[in-house]
């Protein structure tokens, strides 16, 4: 707009009033074009909702150096518009947690927390159809942006659902809290982990957490009750160096090759369970070689006639919460990295699979969990269908409340959508986004309206202990 206002053509006109009128029309044209959805019929209310989503997506919070202050200002503005109480909490410098609250008519009841993260992963700009922070909408209504699926869509769906409920005059019985946390994409140690361990969180008396899930390529929404724990490790093999022509035993590369073969055999056996349909991907142990290094470098490559004295490989392994970790560690010690073969294992991350009660870190999604039938009913009322509950194959911030024994459901209402989180040309269709808002409206009403089925204990601890005593 600065270029228009300084245009020499406008400066040459004799009438300031004419210049102002023309400029005003151009501004209106530009703004209306930004909001217009070509080929998609939306109401004024829906267009305003989509515009707010696009505004959020345009805020660059990409790693490795996300600037969280612009997004914090945006969220503060949204909270004020909706009429929510707001706190900005900072457990690590320049990494704010934005906490919004809608107090219920019975605030002593256990509350519901809606969590999402504000950060996004890096992008390969050259491989995107549209600029990844432009939130461009095409003629089919697909909004292209980093974070459109993971997971700025969910954060705004929370707020749009609350905005709609408040406008209708609805008053929740129990309080609803909405948290926007930083750094999920790099482990959450300065974001969600510190928040869930804080007195700020304890004071909320949270009985249930909703967090992110995953898009579904068919008509059924995916829902997650647990996730796999991360084991990242290096295996290092050592041996005497030797001439490249010699057939020697116990060389570093040979020692590492045996380890790689053993790990590949195990990986194949786990993958076969998925391919046969015996188990879902989240129910098996995945282990993938992500790093490999060996050899003696030269300015132009490597020394080709020298067998190196050390070789190393790195692995990303994910464990479902029902794994016997002692047995797995024994396998690693005896087969993958035995000292007898001059091989060692070093962990970068090694997360447990049990919660603080010593039980598998998962949320029961059956009749023992009073939230689950309410959740199912809400999705059905909104016209959605649920797939069979799954274990999330990667990790999310939901692992932190689950560790404390607090039920957490992973859910991102995106059906008929290709899974594009962390991928090029990530997008979400506007109709799917708006359907998700309606789903959350139903969920929030079911969770916060007075019914016989809704949990009503005044102590979150007592509720969670009751749930986990049945495991």
What does this 3D model show about the protein?
By secondary structure, the chain is α/β, with parallel strands linked by helices. The protein folds into three domains: 2-34; 37-227 and 360-469, Aminopeptidase (3-Layer(aba) Sandwich); 229-319 and 323-350, Alpha-Beta Plaits (2-Layer Sandwich), CATH 3.30.70. 34% of the residues lie in helices and 21% in strands. It is built from 14 helices and 21 strands. The strands form six sheets. An eight-stranded mixed beta sheet has the order 1-2-6-3-7-20-9-19. A four-stranded antiparallel beta sheet has the order 12-16-10-17, covered by helices on one side. It has a three-stranded antiparallel beta sheet with strand order 4-5-21. A hairpin with a 2-residue loop joins strand 13 (297-298) and strand 14. Helix 4 (44-57) runs antiparallel to helix 6 (152-167) and helix 6 packs across helix 13.
Shape: globular
Total beta strands: 21
Rg, Cα atoms, Å: 26 Å
Summed up, the helix count is 14
For this entry, give a set of tags.
four-stranded antiparallel β-sheet; single chain; disordered N terminus; hydrolase; EC 3.5.1.14; N-acyl-aliphatic-L-amino acid amidohydrolase; signal; metal ion binding; about 20% strand; about 475 residues; 21 strands; alpha/beta; Alpha-Beta Plaits
């Amino acid at each position: 707009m600065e270029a228009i206002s300084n245009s020499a053509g406008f400066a040459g006109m004799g009438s300031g009033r004419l210049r102002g009128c023309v400029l005003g029309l151009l501004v209106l044209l530009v703004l209306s074009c930004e909001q217009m959805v070509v080929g998609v019929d939306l109401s004024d209310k829906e267009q305003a909702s989509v515009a707010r989503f696009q505004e959020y997506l345009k805020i660059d919070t990409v790693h490795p150096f996300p600037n969280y202050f612009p997004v914090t200002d945006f969220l503060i503005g949204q909270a004020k518009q909706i009429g929510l109480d707001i706190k900005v909490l900072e457990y690590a410098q320049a990494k704010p947690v934005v906490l919004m609250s809608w107090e219920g008519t019975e605030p002593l009841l256990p509350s519901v927390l809606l969590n999402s993260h504000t950060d996004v992963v890096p992008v390969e700009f050259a491989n995107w159809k549209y600029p990844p922070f432009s939130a461009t909408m095409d003629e089919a209504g697909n909004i292209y942006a980093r974070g459109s699926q993971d997971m700025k869509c969910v954060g705004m769906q929370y707020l749009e659902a609350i905005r709609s409920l408040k406008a209708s005059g609805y008053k929740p019985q129990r309080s609803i809290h909405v948290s926007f946390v930083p750094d999920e994409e790099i482990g959450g140690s300065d974001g969600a982990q510190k928040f869930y361990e804080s007195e700020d969180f304890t004071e909320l008396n949270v009985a249930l957490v909703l967090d992110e899930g995953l898009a579904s390529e068919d008509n059924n929404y995916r829902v997650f009750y647990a996730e796999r724990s991360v084991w990242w490790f290096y295996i290092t093999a050592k041996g005497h160096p030797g001439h490249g022509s010699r057939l020697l035993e116990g060389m570093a590369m040979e020692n590492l090759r045996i380890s790689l073969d053993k790990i590949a055999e195990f990986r194949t056996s786990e993958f076969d369970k998925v391919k046969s349909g015996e188990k879902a991907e989240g129910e098996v142990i995945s282990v993938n070689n992500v790093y490999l290094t060996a050899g003696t470098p030269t300015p132009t490559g490597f020394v080709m006639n020298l067998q190196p004295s050390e070789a190393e490989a790195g692995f990303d392994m994910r464990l479902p919460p029902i794994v016997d970790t002692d047995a797995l560690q024994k396998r690693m010690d005896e087969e993958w990295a035995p000292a007898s073969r001059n091989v060692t294992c070093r962990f970068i991350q090694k997360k447990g699979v049990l919660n603080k009660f010593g039980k598998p870190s998962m949320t029961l999604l059956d009749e023992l969990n009073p939230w689950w039938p309410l959740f199912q009913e809400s999705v059905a009322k909104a016209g959605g269908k649920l797939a069979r509950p799954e274990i999330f194959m990667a990790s999310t911030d939901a692992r932190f409340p689950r560790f404390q024994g607090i039920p957490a459901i992973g859910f991102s209402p995106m059906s008929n959508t290709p899974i594009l989180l962390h991928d090029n040309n990530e997008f979400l269709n506007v109709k799917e986004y708006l359907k998700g808002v309606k789903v959350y409206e139903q969920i929030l009403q079911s969770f916060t309206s007075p019914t016989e089925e809704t949990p009503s204990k005044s102590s979150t601890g007592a509720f969670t202990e009751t749930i986990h005593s049945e495991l």
